[in-house]
Design goal:
The protein is 44% helix and 14% strand. It is built from 20 helices and 14 strands.
Length: 436
């Protein structure tokens, strides 16, 4: 579901958003290995949140012998598949990791998650109201954020850009297109890294381009049910710009077999085989662990998505995920729900947890985050993300979370064909206009 606001961090009006893809899975005994009577959590591997959450749950378990929490970790794609089955069969974990969006709205309608408006008041008091709004439906809270805000960032390998005669990441679309041949001439066979095997990284390109060309209202109308907007001239143009990238060789060869779960796209950038990468703010933490010297030596550049001349969209608007969220399963026992909400109120975003998010390269979605970032390691990147989101007049939720699951899967499949040159921009938009 699309998220519109004046300022995420300025708190100028909470966002009422229907939303979220669920992400855990085993109500009574998910995964089969848990102790009887203990709460369960599933979440994704990778990024700063994994280590922070592991430490947090261990500390909780050490202090609460009678209220244990069992954590299981999954790669992104495997998790999404598993959670659909688990929630649908009433085997969801106690805490359901999600992104908000159309799926959360469906969970609420289907009574798969519970109203936690009153039971998580202590946690809510720490959070930015506009962020909390993402998990609010019909005035009731069904999901609370657990980590950092995650806009999509254009990363770059600065030595490779310099080698190609480019001073910094391109700020206009014409400059981006012009940089492709310059990078290839400089021996960079993959001007822009892209993990096509995972499909969802394709979303980042169409989301930004559609917003830059047609403005935020276009996709808002699609989410509201106006599928004719898929064939709007602005959407066709945005899809055509993707075809232009492919024809220009922007992604090199073999990008359809590059996997995001293994961070193969990041590796192309930090090992010097690519010039740029469009990815989420969440991967900065992976750069810190996988290529610390690359970051320390200031070889990693970062910037906003380029502007498009003549486009209707605000160049300050951004896309991505507000954060990741927790919901509480309606199929969990009363005791396990109590354990989960007590954990959320007392351990989530305590001082150690918050500092762990910051140390891992994330911007936590809490009040007063800006002051904490000024003295942090990697303050330049963290402040960039903070200001990027703070200044955005519109923050668009990832389309695969905003749309109902059937349309979202159709979108990913059709984007796969578009990026591989198997269908035209017109075919892509026409097919999506008939997706239900």
């Amino acid at each position: 579901m699309e998220i519109t606001r004046r300022s995420l961090f300025g708190g100028l009006g909470a966002v009422a958003l229907m939303g979220g893809l669920a992400a855990c899975g085993g109500g009574t005994k998910p995964g089969g290995g848990e102790k009887a009577g203990s709460a369960s959590v599933w979440m994704l591997t990778g990024g700063p949140t994994e280590a922070v959450l592991k430490d947090s749950i261990k500390a909780w378990n050490d202090a609460h012998a009678d209220q244990q929490i069992n954590l299981e970790l999954f790669a992104n794609d495997a998790y999404k598949e598993k959670i659909r089955t688990a929630v649908g069969s009433d085997q969801a974990p106690t805490l359901i990791y999600n992104w908000t969006g159309a799926t959360l709205a469906d969970y609420v309608t289907s009574k798969k998650v519970v109203d936690i408006t009153e039971s998580t008041k202590d946690l809510q008091s720490k959070l930015l109201p506009s962020v909390l709004g993402a998990g609010t439906i019909d005035g009731k809270v069904y999901a609370v954020p657990l980590n950092n805000t995650q806009p999509i960032v254009l990363y770059s390998n600065l030595p490779n850009l310099e080698k190609a005669g480019l001073d910094a990441s391109p700020t206009t679309w014409d400059a981006l297109m012009g940089s492709i041949d310059k990078l290839k001439t400089a021996g960079i066979a993959t001007p822009i890294a892209l993990a096509g095997q995972s499909l969802w990284p394709y979303l980042m390109w169409i989301q930004y381009l559609a917003d830059r060309v047609g403005g935020s209202d276009m996709f808002s109308a699609i989410v509201a049910g106006d599928t004719s907007k898929w064939t709007d001239s602005s959407m066709v143009k945005a899809a055509g710009m993707i075809s232009d990238l492919v024809k220009a060789g922007a992604f090199g060869t073999g990008y359809g077999s590059v996997n995001a779960d293994s961070n193969a796209d990041l590796a192309l950038l930090h090992t010097g085989r690519a010039g740029m990468l469009l990815q989420g703010a969440w991967v900065f933490g992976t750069f810190l662990t996988d290529a610390p010297q690359f970051v320390k030596d200031k070889q990693l550049g970062f910037g906003k998505f380029p502007t498009v001349e003549g486009g209707k969209g605000d160049p300050k608007s951004t896309v991505g995920n507000i954060a990741n969220f927790w919901s509480v399963s309606a199929t969990a026992t009363e005791a396990d729900r109590k354990t989960a909400t007590e954990y959320l109120n007392t351990a989530m975003f305590d001082d150690k947890y918050t500092q762990g998010i910051i140390d891992g390269g994330g911007v936590p979605v809490i009040k007063g985050a800006g002051d904490k970032l000024k003295s942090a390691d990697n303050a330049e990147f963290l402040t960039f993300v903070y200001e990027m989101v703070q200044e955005a007049p519109h923050f668009q939720l990832s389309w695969d979370q905003a749309l109902p699951s059937g349309q979202a899967q159709d979108l990913l499949n059709n984007l796969g064909q578009l990026f591989l040159g198997q269908i035209s921009a017109e075919q892509f938009t026409e097919t999506m206009s008939t997706s239900k």
